[in-house]
Amino acid sequence: MTSGGPERPGDNHGVQIFGGTVSGPVAAGDHAQAVQHNQHAAVTPHAAQVLELLRSLRERLDEADLDPADREAARDAIAEAETEAGAADPQPGPLRRAALVIAGAVAGVNELATYVESLRRIIGAWFATG
Fold first, then answer.
1. How much is the pTM?
2. Start-end of H helices in the chain
3. Residue ranges of the domains in the chain?
4. Which residues, 6 or more positions from 82, have their beta carbon under 8 angstroms from its beta carbon?
5. Which domain of life is it from (predicted)?
């Protein structure tokens, strides 16, 4: 419905949604277009668990009795793993390598070793085949 004059191709007189949740395309009326804009990519449950464990590990590094070089190696590996876990198409290799580096850096600190074991278990479940 235009205010005078003929409709132009591309006019959208359909339903427009700003914010909220849409579980599928919605359109109504002549020339309506279903357009959905997402601000954030969906995070899988495994990615959310990995990111939470990485955050917890990062927070506990300063309190742990670690050599400064090991602490820095762990921080770098955590940052790399966070980037990969938050990617649109995360790959298992970089996450597994980061977990190995973190495990080596925090070896001997039982509290942190528990987090690393959980991290490795979740990464394994995330990318399990079959």
1. 0.67
2. 45-61, 68-85, 92-105, 110-126
3. 1-39, 45-126
4. 51, 54
5. Bacteria
